[in-house]
Design brief:
CATH architecture of the largest domain: 2-Layer Sandwich
Number of domains: 2
CATH topology of the largest domain: Beta-Lactamase
Radius of gyration: 46 Å
CATH superfamily of the largest domain: PAS domain
Order of helices and strands: HHHEEHEEEHEEEHHEHHEEHEEEHE
CATH class of the largest domain: Alpha Beta
Shape: rod-shaped
Structural class: alpha+beta
Strand order of the largest sheet: 2-1-5-4-3
Distance between the termini: 51 Å
Amino acid sequence: MMDLAADAGSQFIRRLILPLCALIAGLIVLAFAGLLWIADYQTQVAVRHQSRLARHALQVQAERLGPSASDYGYWDDAVANIVDKPDLAWMRAQIGAGPEQTLGLDFSFVIGPDGETIYSYVKGSRQNGERVIDLPHAFRFAYRAWLKNPTKTFAAVIPYQSQAVTIAVAPVASVTDVRRPATGYSIVFVDRFDDAALDRLEQNFDLDDLRLSNIAEEAPHPDSAVEIRGNSGDAQKTFLIWNPSRPGDQMLRIVMPFFAVLVLALAALGLLLARFISNSSRLISDREQRAGSDSLTGLANRARLNTELEDAVRRVSRGFSGITVMYIDLDGFKQVNDRFGHACGDELLQEVARRLKDCLRTNDLVARLGGDEFVVLMTGWIERSYIQAIAARILLSIGNPIALSTGQDAHIGCSIGIADSWEPDVTAQGLLKAADAALYEAKAAGKNTLRFHHGFAASPDQHVDIRYAAV
């Protein structure tokens, strides 16, 4: 017997536990891959957000110079000394040296309507005002962009000599004489994108180690490099790069120790489960030897019912479950037996057994005690309304005609007594007696109905009186 039990336990482990362990291992691998994907996704989202911030930082840097250029362009004195009567001394003082001192500009230009440079100023150059330097090719990008809307100021950050500059182009226009047509003249202010500007943007936009580079691959992440665009023909490109924050990596550093502990715990649990199943298989084998089935209906017999009922009561006593017992007695079975014979009576009992199982859950137990008496055992925390619904379904099912092999239909019904409990002091015999007492109440009430016994309930319920006449 013990060898058979051990063999059954080994088969159970091979057929269920090993596939279950493989499933758990697969789920762990899937969970690990999921964590890596989530971490990478978080990092990607964060870097893309920082990329948007970097582009906005370039826009903010450009917008710092735009208003200053507008102040110098929208000025009646500028119209008088640049357009009406060009005065190079005035331009040197007001467009060149003045903005260099107040704004720290590196270049200043005055451009005529034909696009020719009228005046130029280079920071620190001794030749300012003596020789006009044409607007560099790199700055022409901004000037052409301004020409698309010459009544507004254009500002941008563009590449220049392997670095970058902030450039603003503003129209020269009268402030007081709004009816005067556009002059076509413009002022160009240029400021190098220096370390001070990078430090300021780094602090304001929380971009770590913000810097300029001519190689995008120097960026720690493919999305942490934003190209500073200028003339499309520029061979040398300039990028704004930074060290991106990686929230996904931070999440992994926090989660992975707990994940490792979880994997070890699951492994230990698997070993304990295998040992538990091996020991439990012996109990299962012994229980199967003691348990039996009714030879006529295939339902559990009285011995099996008693065993399962005792186990269910023990679970209730430990507070792990609730328990429900339905005592069912057929109404009209004796008349069918007398009229059609014992063979038809056996057919009827077999059909009743099938209908009972169809009305119940797969884990509910149906037992035949003998004759036309049946018991249903249900475990778990079940609401009274659900129990009542199941009992009503049984009444309806049994009440439907039963076709016999003789070609005739048998009409029977049933009465149901129900006892349910979740109290720790409940006993198996007490439940059966309570369900039997409720059955007698149902019989006395006129049959084809059900009754609850409320001696075990936490709070008393009213009598349930549901009747279904056999069709």
